[in-house]
Amino acid sequence: MAFSKLNRRAKIKRRIRKKISGTTLVPRLSVFRSNKQIYAQLIDDTKGVTLVAASSYKNKAAEKKNKADQAAVVGKEIASKAVKAGVESVVFDRNGYLYHGRVKSLADSAREGGLKF
Fold it and tell me: Domain 22-113: which CATH class?
């Protein structure tokens, strides 16, 4: 029996999350991708706290751009907020999505913004 898209992604997500976890010094950069928007968070899993968040939702810089360009804007924004918060290295959590397209665009622009992963 074939997995649905959500079941397949949940299975991949569990497999990824077994191996990675965010700490205070090296938080987890989690990416969520909806049909229209993209969201990114820096999460400290030891405390269960979101340190920094950014999204393309109601973002003036991301309006009127295609989805990959919106992801790049969000990547730069999360990187600048992280640097201000004193975070320079993170663990990347693609959240079950393929490292391609919008997820890759966000990751590349976050690297350009100063994050190391």
Answer: alpha beta
